[in-house]
């Protein structure tokens, strides 16, 4: 569960009490900003606009107290009384990544916050709406990259179930059988780290999707062997030293985790390994040459990405890239996974698979 940090604006709201009837979801206009960036900006800058909350992949900031009038749905499409206005709503702004997508943790944090507010103010799911529903504005636009609002409907389904996104764990779980989710963690990576399956992790934690929330403690089950933080060295059997390339391969497979966990696991080899992964110098013993890139055309509004483990079929995607918004996108190919299917690394989804046959308009060079 993410802590809600309060940093209230001094200027961008009306200090009157309102009766909350709707929750309105938005996305921020500037890519790559954090919730903290927005809270700092709206605190003192008289922008003539605001929202109650800003959400990113690691934090939630309350800028206008719920129950006070924020300025977030004032651009009514035809000035008609559609029942949704600043005087009866709570506004939530989701921060998008630099590539125009939402990090899975941003969606999870926003869903958790929305469910909390639904409960606090007795707002039914049918009154959790888009900015589009209030004014006709294409917002949250990054939930409508395919023109069909597919991501919005997928996101909204999380709000209608009885189970919260952030699931409490059984009280008899011990510290040794839990993992605290960190930024960058995925169920696939944790399944490799703890020698379990994604299905197991979802079952043990009553998860309905692959989304996990930073700070949540995940139950690892009774039969999972948790790596020892400080193993006792055996003097008679020295541990073999692994090459940088071996550590790179293990890191790509998720064995060494992400963020601080990866730094701790790799120790003094961290900088050398990350330099290779991020496209820097390659290990001298086995230089990698002729690295290729996949280029996605600017004519493509969206491009599906999938789990590297598959399947690579419509309906199984984990997200969408937005080439048209950036005049085209290109990524270094990590490896080929199948015919015309390649593994790439994105800032929003991490390592994913992409289908890039010639017929799609993509080019490889």
UniProtKB/TrEMBL annotation:
Any one GO molecular function term: N-acetylmuramoyl-L-alanine amidase activity
Xref: Gene3D superfamilies: LysM domain, Peptidoglycan recognition protein-like
Domain LysM: 177-220
Keyword hit for Hydrolase: yes
SMART domains hit by this protein: Ami_2 (SM00644), Cpl-7 (SM01095), LysM (SM00257)
GO terms of biological process kind: cell wall organization; peptidoglycan catabolic process; peptidoglycan turnover
EC numbers on record: 3.5.1.28
Reaction catalyzed: Hydrolyzes the link between N-acetylmuramoyl residues and L-amino acid residues in certain cell-wall glycopeptides
Keywords tagged on the record: Cell wall biogenesis/degradation, Hydrolase
Enzyme class: hydrolase
Signal sequence coordinates: none
Keyword Glycoprotein: no
CDD domains found in the cross-reference section: LysM, PGRP
PANTHER family xrefs: N-ACETYLMURAMOYL-L-ALANINE AMIDASE AMID
Protein name: N-acetylmuramoyl-L-alanine amidase
Organism whose genome encodes this protein: Carnobacterium viridans
């Amino acid at each position: 569960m993410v802590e809600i940090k309060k940093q209230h604006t001094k200027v961008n709201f009306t200090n009157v009490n309102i009766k909350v009837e709707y929750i309105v979801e938005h996305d921020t206009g500037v890519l790559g900003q954090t919730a903290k960036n927005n809270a700092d900006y709206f605190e003192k800058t008289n922008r003539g606009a605001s929202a109650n909350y800003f959400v990113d992949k690691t934090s939630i900031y309350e800028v206008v107290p719920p129950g006070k009038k924020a300025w977030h749905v004032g651009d009514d499409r035809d000035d008609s009384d559609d029942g949704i206005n600043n005087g009866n709503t709570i506004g939530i702004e989701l921060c998008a990544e630099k590539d125009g997508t939402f990090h899975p943790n941003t969606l999870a944090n926003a869903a958790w916050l929305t469910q909390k507010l639904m409960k606090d103010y007795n707002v039914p799911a049918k009154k959790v709406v888009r900015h589009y529903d209030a004014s006709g504005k294409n917002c949250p636009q990054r939930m409508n990259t395919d023109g069909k609002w597919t991501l919005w409907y997928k996101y909204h389904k999380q709000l209608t179930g009885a189970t919260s996104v952030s699931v409490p764990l059984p009280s008899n779980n011990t510290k040794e059988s839990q993992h605290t989710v960190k930024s960058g963690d995925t169920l696939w990576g944790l399944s490799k780290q703890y020698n379990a399956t994604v299905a197991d992790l979802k079952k043990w934690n009553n998860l309905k999707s692959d989304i996990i929330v930073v700070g949540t403690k995940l139950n690892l089950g009774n039969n999972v062997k948790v790596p020892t933080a400080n193993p006792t060295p055996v003097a008679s059997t020295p541990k073999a030293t692994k090459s940088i390339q071996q550590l790179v391969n293990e890191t790509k497979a998720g064995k060494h985790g992400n963020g601080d966990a990866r730094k701790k696991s790799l120790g003094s080899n961290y900088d050398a390994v990350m330099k290779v992964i991020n496209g820097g110098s390659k290990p001298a013993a086995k230089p990698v040459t002729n690295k290729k890139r996949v280029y996605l055309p600017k004519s493509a509004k969206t491009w599906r990405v999938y789990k590297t483990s598959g399947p690579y079929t419509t309906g199984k995607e984990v997200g969408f890239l937005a080439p048209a918004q950036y005049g085209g996108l290109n990524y270094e190919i990590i490896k080929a996974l199948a015919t015309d299917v390649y593994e790439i690394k994105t800032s929003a989804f991490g390592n994913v698979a992409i289908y890039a046959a010639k017929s799609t308009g993509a080019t490889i060079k």
